[in-house]
Write a structure and sequence with these properties.
about 850 residues, alpha+beta, Immunoglobulin-like, Jelly Rolls, ten-stranded mixed beta sheet, 14 helices, 44 strands
């Protein structure tokens, strides 16, 4: 009955970075009347010793490690059973936990870099060495990191299935290492070790053309191979000055521009001039184990169409805008050059490359002339639906496929409805998240940017935590946010911070410091993320308090504002209808409130009182300065009313009602088109629903004219666009610089679909309590959502049948629900199990 035992955020806790990992589990099929009141955790160590601990508690999420701390490399098996009264569950399947290197002083090998080759103008260097083993190993671990990105092989076999290791972090302060079980790749005697190094984020272009070496100008690798023999002895080998370096087949590589490879050149040191290696300062104290999964190939998609463009070029359509690689099977003569260019859309039948800005997004291969060659890149990625292929005259549809790349997150959320357009919109949101959650939450995957913009993830984090298990992924990114935060509390606009603004502070963007930890805590019930991030959260709120001065109104300094408001001109994305001071002050109140609640939960009572008072004072200042007696809000546009309504920035019911009426009037006057940008869009439908106008919220959702969510769907979009009109009705691409066809920010509407349309809304951390209260207006005849919460699967579905509504609900053990049928004035509370409800349909 116990299932899914986890350590920290991991189902497979291999190379974990904590000596005392917290444990979580969920229960299946708990009988009626079951009330967990204790649990027993059992540990089996490598020496066959067994220990168990019984804890009097009904908790099952992130419970403290009850044993002595793990030591580096220690491997244990942990299982749990749960008690209720006189009964116990069955013992869970054991979870194997293996610690990584927990003390930086245990790194014994060297960080090495080629002495003369592998420079900025060179291709990817191949570093190589040998490992001489006295006997076959019974266990072998490779601990690996790099300046750049690395593919490691042993005896010609690739190590691991992850991509772009070790990932992108705030390299100067936090450098990830990864742990691999390589026992099966080694043998007695001499073993060849090779590390192929790419520029990646460390030394590739970032932000703007020609901006390279953001972190350093030398690629390097650190590999520590630890071999254990049958007699228990351990041998440590790896990178040192005995290694050499040679040129590889990769002549150039860059995330923005692509990769060039000559397949006539072997990726082997045989027959090549060998360069020596230099030792670099390892900075071992900054090495950390990852808390989230790596980037992997998560899916393979076949090509769906071969096209010929008006200019005669061969185009491949994969039917889906995605992030990853094109793989081609070819049979050609030696020296033949094959070129693959990528784009998300076609414009007048040709590859639409203008939104790529300076990014070349091109891969080129020179064939070796073997019978069949497989062409795919290694150290780059592209955002694309279409590929233009040159140099393969007899290309067949079956010769081409797309490999989808992204952080390998477990899917946890689904939605469907009676309207196929809405379902396509939701699927577009999922695909945009898949493409942009690649090592970190990026803004877009195709042009010369691909950065961890804080504004994008703070609006999208509730959607992200529903759709995929992002607990470890976002916690990892938040660690970088803390590391990059300025001494005065300023939060950079992108994390990791490659913009390096001297005094970063912008409402909605920098507020990711408070909003994202709050979203992670709500979704997963992890108070630890608030504990870890609390200094960062507090520093950001104090930074705002220092900016605003005595009047508590944030009316100074540059702001992004309601970025990409649809009325903004193509060349000025920050020129929005919403007064930036109104937006900034509303966010100040929100962050102060989040901090006050977090301080309360963490037992910081003095802080809790201080920040609760600050929130009240900022609200009062906002109301006095920006809200009239009848509820009109300064700058009188959809965004300011939406922010005021969802944050309840009103003094009384008269103002609330007046603001709701004014928002409704603005929506009707706009013909139900969206008039909001990055800040207003995530909350506009919630605001209408809260104001008692769900009918208008549905009208906005289902509107197809531009700007609207469904406009892109009608234009055959398969991801969410950055601009409402990234593609114009005539099929031409918006001339604005900020034009991406894969940008998840406006996809934050999916959170409203989950919570309000389907009616599955968490009301306490970890979904321990939920509210099921679907908005049924007659615009849809059915909707359903399913979510794999930390306690197990929750499923809600409703359907209109004639004059009745049928609602079904499944809740796991540990979750209780308040169920409100449409039009009902009272709720029904239910616990775990399968529940059905039926009543006369009352539209809201």
């Amino acid at each position: 009955m116990t299932t899914r035992l986890r350590a920290e955020y991991q189902d497979q806790a291999f190379g974990i970075g904590s000596a005392t990992p917290r444990l979580s589990w969920c229960l299946e099929s708990a009988p009626d009347g079951w009330r967990s009141d204790r649990y027993e955790v059992r540990i089996e160590r490598a020496d066959a010793s067994v220990e168990s601990v019984v804890v009097e508690s009904g908790e099952q999420l992130f419970v403290p490690w009850p044993f002595a701390p793990l030591s580096s490399r220690e491997r244990v098996r942990v299982s749990v059973r749960v008690g209720s009264g006189d009964a116990w569950t069955d013992v869970s399947e054991p979870l194997t936990i293996e610690a990584g290197l927990l003390d930086h002083r245990e790194w014994q090998q060297d960080l090495i870099s080629p002495s003369t080759i592998g420079g900025l103008a060179d291709g990817a260097p191949l570093l190589f060495g040998r490992a001489d083993l006295t006997a076959p190993p019974v266990s072998a671990r490779l601990y690996l990191t790099a300046h750049g990105i690395v593919e490691f092989s042993i005896n010609g076999e690739r190590v691991g299935d992850d991509v772009f290791a070790p990932g992108w972090t705030a390299y100067e302060k936090r450098l990830q290492y990864r742990t691999y079980d390589v026992t099966g790749l080694l043998h007695k005697g001499s073993n060849s070790l090779q590390a192929l190094l790419g520029n990646g984020w460390y030394r590739g272009q970032l932000v703007w053309p020609g901006n390279r070496s953001s972190y350093g100008d030398r690629l390097a690798v650190l590999a520590q191979l630890e071999v254990t023999y049958a007699d228990g002895t351990r041998q440590t080998l790896g990178t040192d000055t005995t290694w050499g370096a040679v040129h590889s087949s990769i002549l150039s590589d860059d995330f923005y521009d692509g990769q060039r490879r000559d397949l006539r050149i072997t990726d082997s040191p045989e027959g090549k001039p060998v360069d020596t290696v230099d030792l670099l300062d390892g900075g071992f104290a900054r090495l950390i184990a990852p808390s989230g999964p790596p980037v992997r190939v998560t899916e393979t998609l076949p090509a769906v169409r071969l096209l010929t463009s008006p200019s005669g070029r061969t185009l491949v359509d994969f039917g889906q805008n995605l992030v990853g690689w094109v793989r081609i099977r070819v049979n050609g003569e030696a020296g033949t050059e094959v070129t693959v260019r990528h784009a998300e859309v076609l414009e007048y039948g040709e590859l639409g490359v203008r939104p790529l800005r300076s990014a070349k997004a091109t891969c080129t291969y020179t064939l070796a002339g073997d019978a069949v060659e497989i062409l795919q890149p290694t150290f780059t990625f592209n955002g694309f639906r279409y590929a233009e292929i040159e140099g393969v005259p007899d290309l067949a549809l079956d010769d081409v496929e797309a490999l989808v790349l992204g952080t390998d997150l477990r899917r946890t959320g689904w939605f469907e409805s009676s309207d196929h357009r809405v379902d396509r919109l939701h699927e577009n949101v999922v695909w945009s998240m898949r493409g942009n959650f690649l090592a970190l939450p990026t803004d877009c995957p195709q042009r010369d940017e691909r950065l961890g913009w804080t504004g994008d993830i703070q609006v999208f984090s509730p959607t992200a935590t529903f759709l995929f298990d992002t607990a470890g992924f976002l916690s990892e990114w938040l660690g970088d946010l803390s590391a990059e935060q300025k001494a005065d509390g300023g939060v950079p606009f992108v994390i990791p911070d490659v913009l390096r603004e001297p005094d970063p502070a912008a409402a909605a963007w920098s507020d990711a410091a408070t909003i994202v930890p709050d979203a992670v805590h709500l979704a997963y019930g992890d108070a630890g993320v608030l504990e870890r991030q609390y200094p960062s959260m507090r520093a950001w709120v104090e930074k705002m308090r220092g900016i605003v001065g005595e009047d508590l109104l944030w009316s100074t300094g540059p702001q992004f504002g309601d970025w990409l408001d649809p009325t903004a001109p193509p060349d000025d994305a920050a020129k929005a209808q919403a007064d930036p001071a109104v937006v900034a002050t509303a966010y100040f109140a929100r962050s102060a409130g989040i901090l006050a609640r977090s301080a309360t939960l963490l037992g910081r009572h003095a802080d809790a009182e201080d920040y609760a008072r600050l929130e009240r004072d900022v609200r009062a200042a906002f109301i006095a300065a920006y809200v009239s007696e009848d509820g009109l809000v300064r700058s009188d546009c959809q965004t300011v009313y939406a922010l005021a309504i969802v944050n309840d920035l009103f003094a009384d019911e008269r103002q609330r009602a007046g603001a709701g009426d004014r928002l409704a009037a603005l929506v009707r006057a706009a013909g139900y088109q969206v008039s909001t940008g990055f800040v207003g869009t995530p909350v506009i439908l919630d605001a209408l629903s809260t104001a008692g106008r769900p009918d208008l919220a549905y009208r906005m959702l289902l509107e197809e004219s531009c700007p609207s969510w469904l406009y892109a769907v009608t234009m055959d979009a398969t991801t969410v666009w950055e601009r409402w009109d990234s593609m114009l009705p005539d099929g031409s691409i918006n001339p604005g610089e900020m034009t991406s066809f894969n940008h998840y920010a406006y996809g934050a509407v999916a959170d409203w679909l989950h919570r309000r349309v389907a009616g599955l809304a968490p009301t306490s951390p970890g979904y321990r309590t939920i509210e099921v209260r679907p908005l049924v207006t007659g615009d849809l005849t059915s909707a359903a959502a399913r979510h794999l919460s930390p306690y197990g699967e929750i499923a809600v579905g409703w359907r209109c049948e004639g004059d009745r509504i049928e609602l079904s609900l499944t809740t796991p053990y540990g979750v209780s629900a308040d169920v409100w049928l449409p039009g009902s004035t009272t709720s029904v509370e239910v616990g775990h199990g399968n529940h059905t409800f039926s009543s006369v349909l009352k539209l809201v």
